[in-house]
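Quick start: what a row looks like.
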Amino acid sequence: MTTELGMVAWISGLTILMWLPYILAHIVNVGLIASLTYKADGTPLPFWAERAKRAHYNAIENLVPFAALVFVAHLANATNEATATAAVAYFWLRVAHYFVYVLGIPTGRTITFAGSWIAQLCIFYQIVIGF
């Protein structure tokens, strides 16, 4: 497996676990039984849990283009050291993005998001220069 495909697997695994903190906060907030009903959906979460939820949504939104770019690069034989480095950078920047988002560090959130976006642009560039 290439580094890029490995990073898709790792970031996918991370993304499918990101819902756990805010669901656990909801259970602590309203109780297990109430959290299983729709009645408790309007109960406010702690601020950190709301940020965790938004970070999870953002991760899902960014996973789709990242995975698509990696798959296209792989199928087009456009992978190289630059795409591997960009994929690893994307993974670690998204990990950092989640934590700075949950902790409420606005500048860190912006920097890590922008860095992961640039990593995607790098992979895209490697694809288009191959045409």
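That is the whole record. Residues 3-18+46-128 form a domain with the Four Helix Bundle (Hemerythrin (Met), subunit A) fold (CATH 1.20.120.550). The mean pLDDT is 94.
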